[in-house]
Amino acid sequence: MRKGYTSAIVALAATGALITAPAASAAEAAPQGDFTIQWESYITGALTGFESRRWTVVGGSSTVNFTGCESTEYGSDLNSTHVGIWQDLTLRPDVRIGNDARLTACFNRGTSTFTRDISTGARAYFRIARINGDVSGSRLSVDKVVVNE
C-alpha cells in the first residue's frame, strides 16, 4: 500500500462506525404522524464517501433530515454538503437514486431535508459526496440525522 493511503483508509473506516443507532426493521420502525422514523442518529467527523447504515424502504420513498451541521472551514462552497440516497444491490454496483442534494439549512440552525422515491422493499443508504463543495479535505458532523418515510 502506498504511503499516505493508510491514514485515509483508517480514517474512513473509523467514520463508518459513527452512525450508532441500533438497527430497526420496518416492523420495528416508530410511527410519527404521517411518516415512519426508520432510524435516528448523529455523525461525527465524517469524510466524503461516508456511507450511512442501510435501511429497508417500506413506503416507496425515503426522507433524510440533517439538523445541526458543522464542517471544517475548508472548500469552495463553505457550509454546505452534497448527499445522495443510494440503493444497495447485491452482487451488482449500487445505484444512486436521483441527483445528490445540496444541503445548507442545517448549517444555519435549521434542518436540511431531502426525499427520493425508491421501490418499496429496496435496501437504501445515504452517501456524503461533497463537503464544502469539495470531494476531499473537510469533515462533517451532524447533531441529528433522521431517516423516515
Task: Give the topology, please.
Elements: H1 5-15, E1 30-32, E2 35-46, E3 55-56, E4 61-71, E5 81-87, E6 95-103, E7 111-117, E8 123-131, E9 140-148
Antiparallel strand pairs: 1-2, 2-9, 3-8, 4-7, 4-9, 5-6, 5-8
Describe what this molecule looks like in 3D.
It is a single chain. A 5-stranded antiparallel sheet has the order 1-2-9-4-7, with no helix packed on it. Strands 3-8-5-6 form a 4-stranded antiparallel sheet, with no helix packed on it. The protein has 1 helix and 9 strands; from the N terminus they run H-E-E-E-E-E-E-E-E-E. The chain has one domain: Jelly Rolls, CATH 2.60.120. The chain is globular and about 40 Å long. A hairpin with a 2-residue loop joins strand 1 and strand 2. By secondary structure, it is mainly β. The N terminus is likely disordered. It starts with a helix and ends with a strand. 29% of the residues are buried. Keywords: Signal.
Secondary-structure-derived class? mainly beta
Architecture per CATH nomenclature, i.e. the level-2 architecture? Sandwich
Shape: globular
First CA to last CA: what distance? 42 Å
Spans of at least 5 consecutive residues with low confidence:
1-32
Query: What name does the CATH topology carry?
Result: Jelly Rolls
| Largest sheet data | 5 strands, antiparallel
- Domain count: the total is 1
What's the average pLDDT?
82
Number of strands: 9
CA-atom Rg in angstroms? 15 Å
Classified by CATH, the class is Mainly Beta
Number of helices: 1
In which order are the strands of the major sheet placed?
A: 1-2-9-4-7
Residue share in helix: under 10%
How much of the sequence is in beta strands? over 45%
Order of helices and strands: HEEEEEEEEE
